[in-house]
């Protein structure tokens, strides 16, 4: 007799609280580093295109590992996965905290990423199986409040630490907290899982790693190597071919590592498309703004972090409100309003000058975060709501994967645009400046002129990069008009298959 998979067994609050604390630390760690990037560049003597690897490398590891989490969630218990994730995150924090060369710092960050790659899909899956569709918006809103608390605290805390201590203190601060959470999880998480006969396809893992890894590496190295470098276009070609092969293989497999059949559900497919473009805009802005305020404006790390605080707090406060509005009205209205605000504020960020006031920056950033708070969680939740329960691990893994991949590609692409525009504009200004000089300039005059030209050129590069985000956000705005309230669909499958897949996700 055929039947559908049964509903959830109710919220597992103890597990959720522990998972949220662990994910909070991972998010906090990520936002802590943004303000510290200029200090790291100076201390370790690396450029913008190199230091961005601390963000894109983090996302690279996430992009490679997250596709495997659908399998991991089905195979192992929440306890097993959480402890593994926190152990990796703690080890990475220790390594990064003692780094005195960039490669060691990058290695520590990538080990941290291996841990965080497991945490987010794991938490999302537990939430989806714990709450019914009609209450999921409010639940996701509370989750958003906790998760947005990290961006609220991170930049200001980071700015204060970097201003008064060495940037390595950021990792020394995180390490004991991460170890403490690991110990709490070890003693309090007691869930058990029946042994499931699920095996991962090694060739699929290889194709996934080459596909997502090739794309991320190619886009990330374009900033320093240039688009005509074999190192860039060869890795991009390998990435595209491997990813296409991976997708075709998953569609043919009976038990795929990552099930692309979830894209037959239109609201999930639409939510993925919107998430890709809005994540590109959001992650790049988080990279460009600290460079502008510290490198061009000379604003201290603490004041730079303080500038981001109101926007992050506003985003955190809005999260539960947005969740309840989503439950009541659906996602389209929220997404359209939020994306319209994002488009307008992105345009104003593309008109920055050396005289833009500190207050203007605070207001603009706060409005941009307010807009994005109305988009990210409602759009993602609406898409997941349409999936049958047995597809939850694949849906959460897919969402996390595309967020990391699109974030890394967006950051790399816009940093490349900024770097190329800075270089070409600096060359143009230098040629004009040399023509206007009379007589033989002294070395001091030349040095001062070069410094002034570099600042003007970098400002031009940042403005152009922000201008590109206007069009990226506009694409998401157009797509948002097609959002409809999703209703959960259930595939009718055999009783034996239903029992097997229920055991896998519970």
Automatic annotation (TrEMBL):
Coiled coil: none annotated. Residues 15-488 form the Major facilitator superfamily (MFS) profile domain. PROSITE patterns: MFS (PS50850). It is found in: Cell membrane. It is a multi-pass membrane protein. The keyword Transmembrane applies. The chain crosses the membrane at residues 12-33, 53-73, 80-105, 111-131, 138-157, 169-188, 200-219, 231-248, 268-293, 299-317, 329-349, 361-380, 464-483. InterPro entries: EmrB-like, MFS, MFS_dom, MFS_trans_sf. Keywords: Cell membrane, Membrane, Transmembrane, Transmembrane helix, Transport. Gene3D superfamilies: MFS general substrate transporter like domains (1.20.1250.20), Multidrug resistance protein D (1.20.1720.10). Belongs to the major facilitator superfamily. EmrB family. This is DHA2 family efflux MFS transporter permease subunit.
